[in-house]
Amino acid sequence: MRRTDMSRVSDFDHLIALRIRQRRVLIGMSQTGLARAVGVTFQQIQKYESGKNRVSVGRLQQIAVALGLPVSDFFDAASWPKSFGGSLESFVTTREGVELTTAFMHLASRQIRYRIIRLIVAITDSQAEAPSSAHAADRYQKSKPESL
Asked: What is residue 94's three-state secondary structure?
């Protein structure tokens, strides 16, 4: 096997990169902060998180320590479905996605979590059936009581 074949970034490498970014965002750490903790530049962290550069095993261990995770947590990502198409991965790494996920995880009641899921599904279903959002916003403004 040629060196270029062995150094090519694989789908699994991309999953590792995604997991690094998710954890970093979840704990509120900047790329610069992570870079300082592991002794690289923030540009190198950007390359790791985008999947442009592979993360060596030694560097992954350093990153795991900096992020407060056992290194094995990165490998659980191997079982993630490949059918997300990028949209779910993109959302869960946003600040909004992290806030939503964190708040949801703190709900102790399984029944409440289920009800929230049903509520969100109902809202998204009604949006799909409703006229365009611009028309809906106009209707809302016209029907809104003065006190709101």
From this structure: coil
